Amino acid sequence: MNKKNYSNIIWIRRFALGSLFFSLHFELFNPFGNDTNFIIIKVVIITYFISIIPNLRKYLSIKSWLYAIVPLSIYFIILTVVSYRNVSINSDIFFDFPLFLNIILLILILNHLSYDFVAINWALISFIIGGVTVSILYLLNFEVSFFMGRAMMFKDNQNITAIRLTFTILLMLYYIFIKKDFTGVKIFFFLTWPFVLIFLVATGSRVAVICLFLSMLSFFVLISSKDVIRRIGVLFIGFGLIIILIEYISQNLLIINRLMDSFINGDLSGRNFTWQVVFADFMRNPIIGSGLTGYYDNTALLFGYYTSPHNVIIETLSYTGILGTIFFVLFIYRITKHSVRYLKKDNGILPIVLLIPIYGLILSGQLFHPKVAWLILAIIIYATTENYYIKNAKIEKE
């Protein structure tokens, strides 16, 4: 392959990766109506896979990411085996294809960034622009609907939508206050972040609002600068933005009432009852759980329909028992450990800040199927490798 062709492939891959991150905000968007199975993100993922094919073997390597991929893979194997063991007439889908696809995407993106570290800016900026775009479309009332007063677009889950927007705002802050250069991008992000906040709050997502507050607070407390005056200025602006956030949220009766119900009345939208029932089910098979198939049968029997526990730890306990949960927790622990180590060693705050909404999804949401979680995990895992920061420092100097 000559140099020109190879360069063209690199640019195609960057565009495909950027398109993938952009389309995360349109995960359920169907331009041809609900009667068809055509969803934009499917086309984007296929396009990205095609762009990787010339170097597929190289991009499926896990050598540099063994600490994270090994426990995750073991968890997935246990999940598949236990699910197959509990196949029934009512539930026979034992292979979790969406999770498998997310794991493959995680590995591909990690390797893509390791071979083309400039692509990380394509990914992150595209993701932010996607968040701004979907927020403007919300303000224009495009594909907007409401359920119990909570806004949604494309009939997507409000909590997942809001978590995507949380990541969008955090990455905006990263480019505005930490990244050098990108002057035009900084101005655009500073002017458009209120649009993203408006849509986020309109979803009525308690977990997203709490994660956004904690993440922003962590961002500005942990941010460092050798220039004392600049650090004071950043802290002043940062806490000003946090005050604006609190003030805006306090004027939204929907989110305030939901937060008050949670903190005063312990109202978790029925999650606490679901957790009790699912945990009781886990106690019947505490070592290896009942798998996807067994969980489906048990919840259908108990509730009359399939329902998510909205807590990933309880979910993994039910699926794979203590055995599988150990490996899943190890996966998250190792990512957290690497993030903390980087924070202490090199003052890199982005991985820690992005982990806060991930923990929000783990404790009160869904992690396995939403693609945004796995693409952000790819950024976190990659960003905690020394190789990235050496290269990034060189770019900043240049």
Give a written overview of the molecule.
The chain is mainly alpha-helical and 398 residues long. The protein has one domain. The chain contains 17 helices and two strands. The protein has helices spanning 3-23, 40-52, 56-59, 66-85, 97-115, 119-139, 158-177, 183-202, 206-222, 228-250, 253-265, 271-282, 291-303, 312-346, 350-364, 371-383, 386-397, and strands at residues 144-147, 150-153. It has a two-stranded antiparallel ribbon. Strand 1 and strand 2 form a beta hairpin. Helix 1 packs antiparallel against helix 2 (40-52), helix 9 packs antiparallel against helix 10 (228-250) and helix 14 runs antiparallel to helix 15. The longest helix has 35 residues, at 312-346. The chain starts with a helix and ends with a helix. 40% of the residues are buried.
Helix content: over 70%
Number of strands: 2
Q: What form results from the Cα inertia axes?
A: globular
Structural class: mainly alpha
What's a quick, concise take on this entry?
73% of the residues lie in helices and 2% in strands. By secondary structure, the protein is mostly helical. The protein has one domain.
List keywords for this structure.
mainly alpha, globular, disordered C terminus, single chain, 17 helices, two-stranded antiparallel sheet
